[in-house]
Amino acid sequence: MRIDILTIFPEMFSSPFEQSILKRAITSGLVDIRIHNIRDYSHDKHRMTDDYPYGGGGGMLMKPEPIIRGVESIKRDNQAAKVVLMTPQGIRYTQQKAVNLARSDSLIFICGRYEGVDERVREFWVDEEISIGDYVLTGGELAAMVVIDAVVRLIPGALGGGETADSFYEGLLEYPQYTRPRCYRGMMVPEVLLSGNHQEIAIWRRKESLKRTTIRRPDLLKEAKISKKDEVLLAEIKIDLKQG
Ligand code: 6GU
Fold first, then answer.
1. Which of 110, 136, 145 to mutate to test the pocket of ligand 1 (most atoms within 8 A of CB)?
2. Any residues with Cβ below 6 Å from ligand 1, and which?
3. Domain of 212, in residue numbers
4. Which of 118, 158, 162, 180 sits 20 to 30 Å CA-CA off 127?
């Protein structure tokens, strides 16, 4: 997969892409990430990327020309690339969106700054607008990193030995997990996990997963794939929760 990023703060991207899974995905050639400074596509003598809004009002807007020159330059050897604008006005990012983006061969991210981007950019060059949640960031850079992180880990081979991209798999939260020691400051690992009974462990985990989702994210439960056996577990959970 090829990912191009247009930003006025290219340095912001160095650290996250130089660690752990993202670093390995890049060095192993699974993903080719290129950062472009929008300023490099600005032709005026001060290399300006922003300007005052027509009609007045506070704040500055990102000028269309440098961004569009950047997009066109990247698209020259990459016609089919999908252009994504990072903006708090975009559609909310979800795991399903990450799955969809992970199917693309090529993505271009435009990181908005200041009060926003000239509307013509959005209207004529952008395929998708994404927000990562209902809060306002100082710019689209951190949001783009979030989106890219969730996409790259879904690329087959990105996760190392035995790891699978399965959180939110089937739309439920993860069950609680434990590692050694078995007793830590008097706090025990649940007995069932030490039993070696794989069937019982699977049932316990499924129930904990359903319980956690019921308590924390009932909205997810409505969308999740629930089997007949799950219905039984959910009925037990209801009783357990009532009994406190
Ligand atoms: Cl993509 N950009 C900004 N500036 N704020 C955000 C966001 C994006 N997503 C959530 N908040």
1. 136
2. 86-88, 90, 131-133, 135-137, 139-140, 143
3. 168-242
4. 158
Which string of DSSP letters, residue by residue, matches 113-151?
-TT-B-HHHHHHH-SEEEE-SSS--SSHHHHHHHHHHHH
Residues 6+ apart with CB under 8 A from 116: 61, 62, 87, 89
Atom of ligand 1 lying closest to residue 130 CA: 1
Clarify whether residues 173 and 125 are in a common domain.
no
Atom of ligand 1 nearest to the CA of 132: 9
Per-residue pLDDT for the chain (244 aa), expressed as one digit of tens each? 999 999 999 999 999 999 999 999 999 999 999 999 999 999 999 999 999 999 999 899 999 999 999 999 999 989 999 999 999 999 999 999 999 999 999 999 999 987 899 999 999 999 999 999 999 999 999 999 999 999 999 999 999 866 666 656 679 999 999 999 999 999 999 999 999 999 999 999 999 999 999 999 999 999 999 999 999 999 999 999 999 8
Domain count, the chain: 2
- What whole-number distance in Å separates Cα of residue 38 and Cα of residue 130? 19
The residues carrying an active-site annotation are 88, 115, 153, 166
Domain identity same for 179 and 147: no
In a domain, residue 201? The reply is yes
162 inside domain: no
User: What is the CA(236)–ligand 1 centre distance, in A?
Assistant: 41
